[in-house]
Amino acid sequence: MKALEPVALEEIRAAARRLDGSVVRTPLVPLAGDAPAEIHLKLENLQPIGSFKLRGAGNAMALAGARALVDGVTTASAGNMAQGVAWNARRLGLPCRVIVPDHAPRAKLDAIERLGGEVFPVPFDEWWETLLSGTHDAARGFFVHPVCDPAVVAGNATIGLEIVEDLPDVDAVVVPFGGGGLSCGIASALAALRPGVPVYAAEVSTAAPFAAALEAGEPVEVDYVPSFVDGIGGKSVLPPMWPMAKELLAGSLVSELAAVAEALRRIAKKNHVVAEGAGAASVAAALAGGAGRGKIACVVSGGNLDPAKLATILRGGVP
What we know:
With 319 residues, the chain is α/β, with parallel strands linked by helices. It folds into two domains: 9-51 and 150-314, Rossmann fold (3-Layer(aba) Sandwich); 54-144, Rossmann fold (3-Layer(aba) Sandwich). 42% of the residues lie in helices and 16% in strands. It contains twelve helices and ten strands. Strands 1-2-10-7-8-9 form a six-stranded mixed beta sheet. Helix 7 links the parallel strand 7 (172-176) and strand 8. Helix 2 packs across helix 6 and helix 6 (150-166) packs across helix 7 (181-193). The radius of gyration is 18 Å and the shape is globular. The N and C termini lie far apart (36 Å).
């Protein structure tokens, strides 16, 4: 796969028009309670599948066209992108296959299957190789790469348009970093509309490949420890994403699991919003002051959290 480049503003706006009516234009609401900055929550957990992934999947499948989709679709995902692809496949009457890592949470697998997706669990290393190669023996039809697809990144970038519309004087944006498709998409929009406004990657200490890549000056392999923050992190930054991430993102803000759990607990109790671990990572980073003290937009990327883990967090624990 070749290196990706920042998405042009006209492509982002075209994606927004393409997605109009099939995704929710999510609200940007203030974080309740005291904080070191004026923190706003971009609530992508309110999408029909509980995650922003509906945007990238929808744009990629729309651009692919009916002929490319005739044999159905396949993706590789720990859960949320799989739901985005499966939701759109069901809407279009297409079969859907999903290659998932064998540690994927049951709640997300159940959601994929409810949407009609056929799940193929594989060891994490095999799943990671699928992300690197963009193919798998179980794949059928059109492969929607969850990260390294310009159409996916453009769909994700529509979130940046909405942040600028709702908070024109935004001082910084914090975005959970999984593969970089969400953060680089949003940063593409900000670079075009609000140049100079930093976009930070939010990572967690159990898997922070972008922070490691920035330190090394290139993608390097890191230890990956599965945790309740299952929607971000990986073994390394995918090579096609590295040039764009290095160019567009202002840095990595790494939080400990306990800080992410505390942010998730605060969002639930103060704003009455359920976020998953990845979705709360951006808020944890902003609460720690890493993004500064101005008007900070934090992308709550999803809300698909196992109820038992949510219960543990609400009781003050870390799953």
